[in-house]
Protein 1
Amino acid sequence: MEMGSGIDYRLISTDDHIIEPPDVWEGRLEAKFQDRAPHVIEVDDMDYWVFEGKQIPNIGLSVMAGRPYEEYSPKPVRFSDMRKGCYDPRERLRDMDRDGVEISALFPTVTGMAGTLFGECEDKELALRCLQTYNDWLADTWCAADPKRFVGQMIVPIWDLDLAVEELQRGIGLGHRALSFPNAPESLGLPNIGDPHWDPLWDAVEEAGLPVSMHIASGSMRNSPLPLAVAAGTPAEVFVTVAPSSNFVSVAPLLWSGALVKHPKLRFLSVEGGIGWIGYLIQRADEVYVKHRHWTRSVLKEKPSFYFKRQLYANFLDDEVGLAIRHHIGVDNIMFEVDYPHSDTTFPNSQELVAQRFKDIPADETRKIVRSNAIEFFDLDVE
Amino acid sequence: MEMGSGIDYRLISTDDHIIEPPDVWEGRLEAKFQDRAPHVIEVDDMDYWVFEGKQIPNIGLSVMAGRPYEEYSPKPVRFSDMRKGCYDPRERLRDMDRDGVEISALFPTVTGMAGTLFGECEDKELALRCLQTYNDWLADTWCAADPKRFVGQMIVPIWDLDLAVEELQRGIGLGHRALSFPNAPESLGLPNIGDPHWDPLWDAVEEAGLPVSMHIASGSMRNSPLPLAVAAGTPAEVFVTVAPSSNFVSVAPLLWSGALVKHPKLRFLSVEGGIGWIGYLIQRADEVYVKHRHWTRSVLKEKPSFYFKRQLYANFLDDEVGLAIRHHIGVDNIMFEVDYPHSDTTFPNSQELVAQRFKDIPADETRKIVRSNAIEFFDLDVE
Ligand SMILES: [Mn+2]
Ligand SMILES: [Mn+2]
Ligand SMILES: [Mn+2]
Ligand SMILES: [Mn+2]
């Protein structure tokens, strides 16, 4: 059996980040909103985004691609001190070439990874226009730079489901291929991700055949039900350690809610959560189904693993334990990611890392995990 | 190589529960406290413990041993409707014989699994005397019934560290072999388990060579930082699914806090948390150490996995995924448990289950995991 290390194709990364350049909202809004749209100011030799009275810097740990670990720091970084691939699509493509990555699925930064910055804005007309403008800009700049290599993931106004469905349709028209949805909507004061509240959005998403990405920490960081509660009064490493697996705030409710039963074609990707804990979660859920479904009157017709296999996916950067138990998760349900330009990124060593981690894994499974599963998931037009 | 299924010895269970009979506190306290000690009353054909105005029933799911899953229910159960092994040590020994279990480590129920019922009591003199009485009663009844087969785990007054150290010494004198400490003291308004606040207790525990058990959900259920936050507005199955792995509220802070550096002989057991997620947690912690320790200025001198291997342990009931990655955790660091009489218990099928789950695992590893590791951990006087 041929093992995976003889990889003669490029990887697909299912999670990377755009650090928005200062001009995203420039000249794209009506006069009455233009001045209030997010814009960059300089204060004491630092760049800040300004929106609705908030001053938001780019955190160092979000732009560490290519730096040695000794330089890692949460301290804000100016645009001029960032690697250009952070904010420039052509430079990004060059970095992807360096890293052996053909295609990249993109998340925003300043808007919140699922657009939650705008959900907090009181003027909902302003919020909607700013959000739409991000989707426009994403299509016109990054995706236009190479429509085959950048997968645009749109944000929608989740505070109003009618508007959200409308923006979803509009975003599809712009060429976007996935929806970025907050992993923990309850942290935003909204119903849990499994709640029937979201049915109208899921109906539209399912109808469109679009997948949904749930990035870790894409809800509110302030009210996140998980990592911050664990981290209170503990060293910073605790938060960094538990942040990925905290995505069980999405996966467990989705498995049990009935949303996957009602929407059999809806597909969700747990993003940057890693996979080493997911085999356990599926196993535990099945055990709970066997032992507890009678008193809980579960709405599931099959074991949770059935719905996971059919509709849930998870990605990872470097996860030896997860690969060891890949058959407990499903080799069709896991995907590689690079997380450029964040501190945990595999850039510029993705090819080497994959060759090393997959050396004992059959070639067909390897190709699925680092490439083909993503092609199918995002419905990409490549081999 | 001989595989594990030829098991010709009895198992050791590192987690079982006493459902206290009504007479635990009867005739054991000074007159001024006797009436105020926990006692059982009957209301509308149900038994309730009464303490400081609280009325506490025995939850059905805690006494399901031997029942078919179809009968599982959280509804309160009377003593007369329970299997006698729940509250009677001689009946428990017979059930252990039926199940092929030689030795059992015991946790209390009505006191909270780490004695937290008394921490909430305003009269701290009453609280201390009631807590001490549980430790006395445990020694005089269950442990006395068979000192070789029951491992007494004591509770201590964690609201006052001087008293806690005193009670620890007293409990050791009574023959108890472990301390049951809340997995999430922050849920009780106390410092996190890794906080230097606990140093005086850890000094005494380390000096005594005693291990510490941290049972899932042994903090306050009301303020638990994890499962309840995840479960808000979700089906009951979500809570049941995530409750075990929520023990990362203990494991992650312990790994990073420096408590294990300062107390190199201190040993902690994550109880009923399962092990299938722990390989991932250790791997992630090591990754965080490599990438992030510079900016976090970690207090660790070695990778987190070094401290885990030396000082942390975890047990499980039925965890195929966990066994598949046992070498990522350490075969010396994992132990079997029965969880009698809770709903997830392996009773009365523990021998069969172990034979099945360990059939492809080498005999020496099997023996460690289902027996020898527990002998060493609790310093038991058997082979
Ligand atoms: Mn990411
Ligand atoms: Mn990231
Ligand atoms: Mn237990
Ligand atoms: Mn239990």
Protein 2
Amino acid sequence: MKKITLLMVALVMCAIASAQFAGIQQRGPQEEALPEGFKPSATNIFLAQYPAVNATTRQVMFRVNAPTAQKVQIDLCNKKYDMVKDEKGAWTCTSDPQVVGFHYYAVLIDGVPVMDRNTDAYFGSNWKSSGVEIPEGPEGDYYRFNKNIPHGQIRSLYYWSELNGLERHVNVYVPAEYEQNPTKKYPVLYLLHGWGEDENGWSNQGHMGNIMDGLIAAQKAVPMIVVMESGDIKTNPDVRKAATNDVTQIYVKDLMPFIEKTFRTQADRDHRAMAGLSRGGGQTTSTVFPNMDKFAWMGTFSGFFMGMRMGGNNAAPAPDMKTQVETSFNGVFKDAKAFNDKMHLLFISTGTAENSPKAAVDALKEHGIKVVFHESQGTAHEWLTWRRALNEFAPRLFK
Amino acid sequence: MKKITLLMVALVMCAIASAQFAGIQQRGPQEEALPEGFKPSATNIFLAQYPAVNATTRQVMFRVNAPTAQKVQIDLCNKKYDMVKDEKGAWTCTSDPQVVGFHYYAVLIDGVPVMDRNTDAYFGSNWKSSGVEIPEGPEGDYYRFNKNIPHGQIRSLYYWSELNGLERHVNVYVPAEYEQNPTKKYPVLYLLHGWGEDENGWSNQGHMGNIMDGLIAAQKAVPMIVVMESGDIKTNPDVRKAATNDVTQIYVKDLMPFIEKTFRTQADRDHRAMAGLSRGGGQTTSTVFPNMDKFAWMGTFSGFFMGMRMGGNNAAPAPDMKTQVETSFNGVFKDAKAFNDKMHLLFISTGTAENSPKAAVDALKEHGIKVVFHESQGTAHEWLTWRRALNEFAPRLFK
């Protein structure tokens, strides 16, 4: 009868061996105390001490277990840091002070860029990347989990796209009250990701659930449904060359009908908004302007805008801004009054540490177009800029 | 006015540069045609051709771009494959024939185990790993997306745990009809992950959504809610030494009240089930047996069971199986009639290519305990075994 126990022991061993092939032993001990002032990044997987962040100096300490490598570096915000190996085979380095917010980074193992497996995997630059979060003080509370308010749900759905001939994935935020009001209908915000990211970006990197929960609980924003889709990233044979027009068809012909069939939506232009970040801002303009019978609220966060189009035209000589205002997007701005009457909100935002669309905004305003312009102080083309943009944008919708 | 366009061009360049630091250029060209018979693995990120799988020979071709590395290997199912470098710096190899189903693997860059960034990131072995899927024929349709049936939703929720003093994440599957029946209440299956995995395993690696959608659409299973939680993985300071008792408290005191407050559940023992795979099977027995006033249906898939306990006792001498049956789990099986009267389903499953609990099952049966025993032919301690287990288990619930 000992046989059974031996078999069982063997099964444990087998399970452990099968788990170990992926290298749990190489993950290395996690128990070392962190240096004074450093705490594990909010992006770390459970038990992982590194990357560790000093909230005061805004420096990051990295530690990578790689006993057999010849050279290990961290590639963070366009600077490479050489790491130093200790006697156990762990490599460490400490970064320069960073801007607050979320940053992607890579580990270079003998020059090969890989994920640091100590953090969650974030889809960026068209593959899974590591991320580190430099924490803000209380001013960042709006995107953190608040245990004292009701929480919405982010629902993961797959649906069949006739247009693409494949199943597509979409994440849909519903407000906390959605379940408690089984007949109430809600307005919908279509919220697009940027280049190289996907439908999970807004919830993972952007913490949109916490932001919306907070705005709705404080009655700053009306309860709404927020739809986050993969756009053309899972359809286009080369997303880097994708025309923005294709995605319009996906949104209008595939996604919107599916959402309106599946959720209790207020299915008219006065209750539909679209916004996007970076490339998703460009997709917002190219989707909304030709479809103003379907959308009356829009936002472009650090987005491609006037004078700047996808598809290789970036190097083309610029028309002057006045012409630009009159001719962009098939002349949608030409008749300012007509535009203002139809579009309830045109929201344009940027970080002050990235190139600004302010001149375009000024030209639009001069022409009489109503624009809400938001600048995120001190932030670049990164997620903190977009969290702040959403936090400013959502309260202005559907009112 | 050319300044604006130049600014805009700079912004594009900046966005692209910021995206490139994580190495999109190093991802390498994806346009090469695959060798005859090979197709991209179902686990690949969009556009990624490799890993590529030959469904007939069940071999996998890997390709890793690593021009600066000295040695690159693939570590798949406990075998290391040396890769060969081409003139562009891409390394390739072809594996031996594999068992059908999902397998984790790692890339070794100069001996350092990292993710292959061509696949989605799956949480396994306590960190993010790559995975490859060796496809089955039509017999695998039950876990694939079926465009002709209604689909449930997997809802991502965060809730505050007083017990842990932190927010916890849970995924909850609701059947397609849930929204259409705003007053109907549903039975609940608590479905646990295994060692080194997390609350996303059943939906990502296990395709539980597709499995449940299919069973419910075919009226093989009753519509039910399925709750997938992280267990103790995000609470315990050393999950590898965790006592299974702790997790019981999380389930019974934190999770169940939250689920029953948030969803329309039939909140009694006749409509509550728990099942888990591997270590989650052990957690199922240690949670359900002392709480048979709360659960009447249970399953342990490749799970730790009689004679085999967590916490370092695996090497202890085995009692004989008759004693085991009478004393295990505080003697829950001793009075077979009493057990059978109370427990509507005790389901135990295994793969035939892993060590089997059959002897324990036989001893239980001999003692008069009603057990449903399922064997997955030809599969090991892996996800295909557990997809099949769920597909056999769920139809037997709540009937």
